[in-house]
């Protein structure tokens, strides 16, 4: 054993629900996991119930029978270890590209969390092995396709379980692909030998879709507030007004998300010389376009959708998802808690919200570039009109992304494909909802990055009028590459701007200047 690196965060996990922040810390920051000893004691107690049933000559589902459509087939005691391993091997049937490391780490930690509830009947060694794999940085290779979201994320979880037994491919802490047996040996981890009920316990859960929901919520907490920043920059650069964002007007429609977004916009535009320049009685504009004036209504609705999704995630974090489960009074009961519908619905809902937020941002980008609507700015914000194209094609890129996001907003959770000889005749497709949401969030970051570039360039063209302190701070992040001037290779600028949005640099720069904004 090596000494724990004190620069790495430490997370203690027990029988209770882990926090979303703890899951993200393990998934993204390689936080070191410690297990509460009381949770291991609880697991040992519930394991006694399973062992008693295993000795019973009467069949008990998941303990001494087959699975799914084979639930009535009795398995003799001397074949049950083979039954558990066969279950995991057969269910590790994923296909397609590798799933991201952070997703695999999140789903592994969440399965560990359910094991520690003592409701699965697994032995403490199963939980200890999962924690050891996470701490060693061993990441089983999980594939894009294979889960229908019922009975949970079977194939992804089976690939993790197979690695714990020393079979199948993994990546070590350095990202090097190797066999699981080799990786476990190098880390000093004994491969698991699964006993009765444990094959089901390690694959029967919503951990893949829940893990991706938690990661998405962390991303969106950052991104929806960044969208307030880029919206404020566009409003300012288009000579819009901050008057509609007044608190008393927003109070007439008391959705909390709308109020928070409007308050952010008021703060972001505070002190803007550009806004002040056209605030007087000489201004002939009656009201701004919807993509400017209604930014809080869309951004706020996204916030409230996130709040609902966060509530669902908190409930799922507190769940013990397995089938059958060991109840506190010692019963072993079949149930339907593995069905992913509650998580799948909010994953789909978030994809709708993300698409709409990006769509509104794209309309502002287009308005910034159109000389008929941008109030005196050059066409496409070009340096030499006719010679330079400016950001013309950057708007095409944003439009193409938004079109894709609209397709991804079509819900996966309404598409049920029966499986397991009609035993599993209705499935959630929650894994697919999670996968498309990850793509949607990446697209949103790119559209907001393009808006950041366009609004920054438009602000600079308003000189000598001064932007607000907040929007100036955001513009400075891209000022060297995105400022006015002759055409240049724009793709690297788009990527850098998207990274500034995605990594939180835009929001951090603004909050460093004016203080913390309202988050979700």
Automatic annotation (TrEMBL):
Pathway: Amino-acid degradation; L-histidine degradation into L-glutamate; N-formimidoyl-L-glutamate from L-histidine: step 1/3
Residues in coiled coil: none
InterPro entries: Aromatic_Lyase, Fumarase/histidase_N, HutH, L-Aspartase-like, Phe/His_NH3-lyase_AS
Catalytic activity, as annotated: L-histidine = trans-urocanate + NH4(+)
CDD domains on file: PAL-HAL (cd00332)
Gene Ontology molecular functions: histidine ammonia-lyase activity
Enzyme Commission (EC) number: 4.3.1.3
Subcellular location, principal: cytoplasm
One annotated Gene Ontology cellular component of this protein: cytoplasm
Biological processes, Gene Ontology terms: L-histidine catabolic process
Compartments (UniProt record): Cytoplasm
Xref: Pfam families: Lyase_aromatic
Record's keyword annotation contains Kinase: no
EC category name: lyase
Annotated keywords: Histidine metabolism, Lyase
Sequence similarity: Belongs to the PAL/histidase family.
Cited NCBIfam families: hutH, PRK09367.1
PANTHER family: HISTIDINE AMMONIA-LYASE
Protein name in UniProt: Histidine ammonia-lyase
